[in-house]
Design goal:
alpha/beta; FAD/NAD(P)-binding domain; five-stranded parallel β-sheet; about 15% strand; binds 3-acetylpyridine adenine dinucleotide
């Protein structure tokens, strides 16, 4: 795909209203809103361009599993009317083109500084300002910091002994090279069977001489049924975007999934199977909306899980492989459900092997390949589809220091603590977009991003109008929110799975269910109520060196 030519890096002011970290969909829209408020802003990103997740995840087969008509900005009708998606589920290159199109249309890049990593952000309690430093030597004093760092941006490479000794090439799906990778004629090992692996394995297998997949935990995957975007389908969305977007904003996941408000277990079996069959045929993550209790009731969940296991057994010809691929360790949907194109059928190819490493783990990389369960496997290339230090990794690695010299990494040692996923006590004027404690990864990310950015913009405008210069979550509000997030999670089956939602994929990371599962619409209402009540649960203070402003 074509990327705009790199322009000379502009200057970085010493003082600014707002530093935004991250030039993905969150940072891009935040910059646009800040400009609208008349606030000066600069955006830093390690990448050489906009797009965030879609800049980095260029692995073969990378594709969004939210429908294109719903995975796009809604804030500008002109934008949503003019953009034409070529497929029902857009691939990574097309989504990145869309991000670049938005950056062009809104002239965003002039306030962005790429290939620049923020190395620290330290709050000055006297001046009520953040000092932000970068690896380019920039030092910026900002009133506000907005962390638009993404939930799945800190790629995780397991600490295998001998990693550097492997003579072939290694790749991580989340840090894929920009140039084409050609696996033709090669023996390729793929580690992992999460969403990234499930999307990339069929594409790699079609090219490589041989693929060996190392699976620790089998995952549930639903066919995407992707295809070219039908004109009449796109047209029907464009004709009614206003109503459909409004509905999606209040939907549980921010996606119009046409939920079925019936219990799976209370529905007669023949009828239940017909519902699953119809959802399977239409494809995609909305399979989980087949019944209203799949994430609450284990017996109901078992019916959906068994249906999908049956499909896997019907698709995979080798019964031993089918058994290995049929998930049995977690309720369906409690680890992020995957969406695929020909994933299970790929295991019928003669050039694809599956190795179970659940009880015989990968021990080391060797010069020739890797060793698992005492057996040697030889490869020319190894693809690590091993995921991310999700939700907190990008934030805790950044050197963020709040009041009293407290590091965010220390404050969150036992798990992230936020108020509404938007702010964390002790870190005034620092906002997070889709932070832990908000629906974020359980939702259509663009819907959640727009909601957070709009809320933050409203908050900054409120501060400005009242000549206040500091907002901070209070500890009691934060404690109450964390309690609520946990209580809601505990009404579901989610905490029973060793998922990255729980931090379970990172050795030593505390097991805390990080996103808010109360639903996108419910969450929006709570955030709006907090704002309407004068930013209840936040302490708002007046200009530096002045008395606390009276409301
Ligand atoms: O990462 P993952 P991902 N030895 O953490 C395995 C989003 N996304 O990049 O399950 C052996 O899900 C690990 O095994 P286990 C989406 O939200 C969206 O695939 O921990 N295996 C697992 O199988 C998704 O959930 C889209 O036992 C090891 C895999 O590596 C999230 O990103 C597309 C291992 C990691 O799976 C992350 O997905 C892609 C080890 N030492 C991603 N360490 C779409 O929109 C880890 N594993 C379509």
């Amino acid at each position: 795909m074509t990327q705009p030519a790199a322009s000379p890096r502009g200057t970085v002011p010493h003082e600014i209203d707002t530093v935004v970290v991250g030039a993905g969909f969150g940072g891009m829209y935040m910059l646009h809103r800040l400009r609208g408020l008349g606030l000066s802003a600069i955006v830093f990103d390690v990448a050489a361009g906009v797009g965030g997740t879609w800049y980095w995840n260029r692995y073969p087969g990378a594709r969004c599993d939210v429908e294109s008509m719903q995975y796009s900005y809604s804030f500008s009708d002109a934008l949503q009317q003019e953009w034409r998606w070529s497929e029902v589920f857009a691939g990574q290159p097309e989504i990145l083109r869309y991000a670049n199109h938005v950056a062009d249309r809104l002239d965003l890049r002039r306030d962005m500084r790429f290939e620049t990593r923020v190395t620290s952000a330290i709050f000055d309690e006297t001046a009520h300002r953040w000092t932000v430093r970068t690896d380019r030597g920039d030092v910026v004093s900002a009133r506000y910091c907005v962390m638009a760092t993404g939930c799945l941006s800190a790629a995780r490479m397991p600490d295998f002994p001998g990693l550097a000794s492997f003579a072939g090439k290694t790749y991580h799906t989340g840090q894929w090279p920009h140039e084409d990778v050609d696996f033709t004629g090669l023996r390729v090992g793929v580690v992992g069977t999460g969403s990234s692996a499930i999307q990339s394995i069929p594409v790699i297998a079609a090219q490589a001489a041989h693929v060996t997949v190392f699976q620790r935990t089998p995952n549930f995957s639903i066919p995407s049924r992707n295809g070219p975007m039908p004109d009449d389908y796109a047209g029907s969305w464009k004709d009614s975007y206003a109503e459909r977007r409004a509905e999606a904003r209040m939907a549980r996941t921010g996606i119009l999934a046409y939920p079925n408000d019936r219990s799976a277990i209370e529905t007669p079996e023949a009828e239940r199977l017909a519902v699953y069959e119809q959802r399977w045929e239409s494809g995609g993550t909305t399979f989980m909306a087949a019944f209203n209790d799949l994430i609450f009731n284990k017996a109901s969940n078992d019916t959906a899980a068994e249906f999908v296991r049956g499909k896997i057994r019907a698709m995979v010809k080798d019964p031993a492989k089918a058994d290995l691929l049929a998930p049995d360790s977690h309720p369906i949907g409690t680890k992020r459900i995957c969406v695929d194109t020909d994933y299970y059928l790929t295991y019928n190819r003669p050039n694809v092997d599956l190795v179970d490493v659940r009880n015989a783990p990968i021990e080391a990389l060797t010069p020739d390949g890797l060793r698992a369960g005492g057996k040697e496997y030889a490869f020319d290339a190894i693809v690590f589809a091993t995921g991310f230090d999700a939700m907190t990794g990008a934030l805790t690695r950044m050197g963020i220091v709040g009041r009293g010299g407290e590091a965010l990494a220390d404050k969150w040692e036992a798990g992230p603590r936020t108020y509404l996923g938007l702010m964390t006590a002790g870190f005034p004027n620092m906002f997070m977009i889709t932070g832990p404690g908000s629906p974020s990864v359980l939702s259509n990310m663009i819907v959640s991003i727009e909601q957070h950015v709009d809320w933050i913009a409203g908050c900054l405008s409120h501060l400005n109008m009242r000549q206040l210069d500091c907002i901070e979550a209070t500890l009691p509000a934060e404690d109450g929110w964390v309690r609520h997030v946990n209580e809601v999670a505990d009404t579901t089956l989610y905490p029973s799975a060793a998922s990255w939602y729980m931090g379970a994929n990172i050795p030593g990371k505390p097991r805390v269910f990080m996103p808010y599962i109360g639903g996108v619409g419910t969450y929006r209402e709570k955030c709006d109520a907090v704002a309407a009540n004068g930013y209840e649960g936040f302490a708002l203070t007046g200009p530096t060196n002045a008395a606390v402003a009276a409301e």
